[in-house]
Design goal:
The complex is a heterodimer of chains A (285) and B (214). Chain A has 285 residues and is of the alpha/beta class. Chain A has a single domain, classed as Dihydropteroate synthase-like (TIM Barrel), CATH 3.20.20. Helix content of chain A is 48%, strand content 15%. Chain A has ten helices and ten strands. An eight-stranded parallel sheet of chain A has the order 9-8-7-6-5-4-3-10. In chain A, strand 7, helix 6 and strand 8 form a beta-alpha-beta unit. In chain A, helix 3 (73-87) packs parallel to helix 4 (99-108) and helix 8 (225-239) packs across helix 9 (248-261). The longest helix of chain A is centred in the middle third of the chain and has 17 residues, at 153-169. The relative contact order of chain A is 0.13. The longest helix of chain B has 25 residues, at 60-84. Chain B is α/β, with parallel strands linked by helices and 214 residues long. Chain B has two domains: 2-84, Methyltransferase, Methionine Synthase (B12-binding Domains), Chain A, domain 1 (Orthogonal Bundle); 93-211, 3-Layer(aba) Sandwich (Rossmann fold). The mean pLDDT of chain B is 93. Chain B has nine helices and five strands; from the N terminus they run H-H-H-H-E-H-E-H-E-H-E-H-E-H. In chain B, 58% of the residues lie in helices and 10% in strands. In chain B, helix 2 (18-30) packs parallel to helix 4 (60-84) and helix 6 crosses helix 7. A five-stranded parallel sheet of chain B has the order 2-1-3-4-5, with helices on both faces. Classes of the chains: A alpha/beta (285), B alpha/beta (214). Chain A binds chain B through residues 30-31, 36, 67-71, 97-98, 144, 148-149, 185-190, 220-223, and chain B through 59-61, 63-64, 103, 105-106, 109, 127-128, 152-154, 156, 182-185, 188. Chain B: Pfam families: B12-binding (PF02310), B12-binding_2 (PF02607). Chain B: One of its GO terms (biological process) is tetrahydrofolate metabolic process. Chain B: Keywords: Cobalt, Metal-binding. Chain B: Belongs to the methylamine corrinoid protein family.
């Protein structure tokens, strides 16, 4: 199955058989004081730089989230989307919990974006899916509903089924729904990793869709987080994740190694090229 | 005998052994140990874990494990306190929860554990808590402190709603309000009329003491 995303100049195809497509997570003020303040002031230079840096680091798609306290997302999201489109060529993932902000961003976007996100909640399905359909976008479906994020695999998989079914009923093709099985910290509950990994495997097996995942939550509250993050991302990709939302500069080497191990990198071309780029950058320092 | 049970209970908490903690709590009741003394010992144990967490020597799973062991023993001892009519002293009563629309629990639970360790009586309402539920609990438990968490910018304004609701019910001045969570800032806390904010769980404990002047 293929999910095609486009910008004005570029197409990115996410394939269920890989290679892994990387969605850059860094244009998101959550937990970032400097970016929050810049967005509150309407200073978008930092956003522009983050966009360029992430694409240089190998991001295939960029997530754009402007949800800082006291920010009017309906005004700022379309504005930031324009700035990012101007700075880089890659397709974007429009990330907001505010349907009105999403709609305004969809209107200014050139191409076919990814909408982040819809959940299994009726209110969310009713508000987000019509927007996705109208603007011919693709959408990320989160496996949570009114009761929160289920802590068992069956319930998460059932929500994924519900989202895909509802989207198809509305005329959104299945390949334009990407499922996120949601990562919780193994620091708070050691079953959290197993539950998300098994959910990923089942969603891939039963629905055959592309899957995304945010990786860094997995290690919250633990030391040496990058070790856990990298291990998790490898396992998640192996089980069916095809387009994780990540800090690209940090995890790309591990992702390329995983793709190589899964037979998705002929003659190890991508892996070696990334190595050479790192070497070159080292020398320039 | 007494010290054997009490030291064993402390050890069980520090080793995250929920089963042993519950068994020793039952034995403490059978042997008619002073339940207040037992409770105090448990508090000392969880505080040691909390302090080590605050210093960065221990990690989130350590805190979760110790809190699990504490929770396994706590109801048994609390029941005994109630039965014997012993008077329990605490620093104060806290009602805590994550606001409506928000299901993030880790930070809120950490704060509750550390407040319990410090000697507060904590009523953790859980996540996705509506304004009226907070108000009801504050009234019911005669709380000294309300601690609210919000991790998302979409749900942060919910904290303001709770404060407004408390004002309407005439309860605002009866309770000190502290707020926290990834979406909250010092400025926001001031704007919505909270009494205090801290970005860390150990910091929240210091703040709670300060707010009630202890």
């Amino acid at each position: 199955m293929e999910t095609k995303l486009t910008s004005a100049k570029k197409q990115v195809v996410i394939k269920t058989e890989g290679p892994t497509v990387l969605i850059g997570e860094r244009i998101n003020p959550t937990g970032k004081k400097k970016l929050s303040r810049a967005l509150q002031k309407g200073d978008l230079e930092l956003v522009r730089r983050e966009a360029i840096d992430q694409v240089m680091a190998g991001a295939d798609v960029l997530d754009v989230n402007v949800g800082a306290l006291g920010v009017d997302e309906e005004v700022l999201l379309p504005e930031v989307v324009k700035v990012v489109m101007d700075a880089v060529d890659v397709p974007l993932c429009l990330d907001s919990t505010n349907p009105a902000a999403l709609e305004k961003a969809l209107k200014v976007y050139q191409g076919k974006p990814l909408v982040n996100s819809v959940t299994g909640q009726e209110g969310s399905l009713d508000r987000i899916l019509p927007l996705v359909k109208k603007h011919r976008a693709a959408v990320i479906g989160l496996t949570m509903d009114d009761e929160g994020i289920p802590d068992d695999v069956d319930k998460r998989v059932a929500i994924a089924h519900k989202i895909v079914k509802r989207a198809e009923k509305m005329g959104i093709p299945r390949e334009d729904v990407i499922i996120d099985c949601l990562t919780l910290s193994v620091g708070a509950n050691e079953r959290a990793g197993m539950v998300v990994i098994e959910s990923i495997r089942r969603v891939k097996e039963e629905l055959g869709v592309n899957l995304t995942i945010g990786a860094s939550n997995i290690s919250f509250g633990l030391p040496d987080r990058s070790i856990i993050n990298n291990a998790f991302i490898s396992v998640a990709i192996c089980m069916g994740v095809t387009c994780p939302i990540v800090d690209v500069a940090k995890v790309r080497p591990a992702v390329l190694a995983t793709d190589l191990l899964l037979g998705r990198d002929r003659y190890a071309i991508r892996y070696i090229k990334a190595y050479q780029q790192r070497q070159k950058r080292e020398k320039m320092k | 005998m007494d010290t054997e049970i009490i030291e064993g209970l402390k050890k069980a908490i520090k080793e995250y052994d929920t089963e042993k903690a519950a068994n020793l709590a039952k034995r403490a009741v059978e042997e008619k140990l002073d339940p207040l003394k037992v409770l105090n010992a448990m508090t000392v144990a969880i505080r040691e874990v909390g302090d080590a967490f605050g210093r960065g020597d221990l990690w989130l799973p350590d805190l979760v494990g110790a809190a699990d062991a504490l929770q396994a023993a706590m109801p048994i001892i609390e029941e005994e306190i109630k039965r014997t009519g012993a008077k329990r002293e605490s620093l104060g009563t806290v009602v805590a929860g994550t606001v409506f629309g928000d299901i993030h629990s880790i930070g809120k639970t950490m704060v509750c554990t550390l407040l319990t360790a410090e000697g507060f009586k904590v009523h953790d309402l859980g996540v996705n808590i509506k304004a009226e539920q907070f108000v009801e609990a504050i009234d019911k438990y005669n709380a000294d402190i309300l601690a609210m968490s919000a991790l998302m910018t979409m749900t942060a304004p919910e904290q303001k709603k709770v404060i407004e609701r408390l004002k309407k019910e005439g309860l605002r001045d009866k309770v000190k309000i502290m707020v926290g969570g990834g979406a909250i800032t010092e400025d926001f806390a001031r704007e919505i009329g909270a009494d205090g904010y801290d970005p860390t769980a150990p910091g929240a404990v210091k703040l709670a003491r300060k707010l009630i002047g202890k």
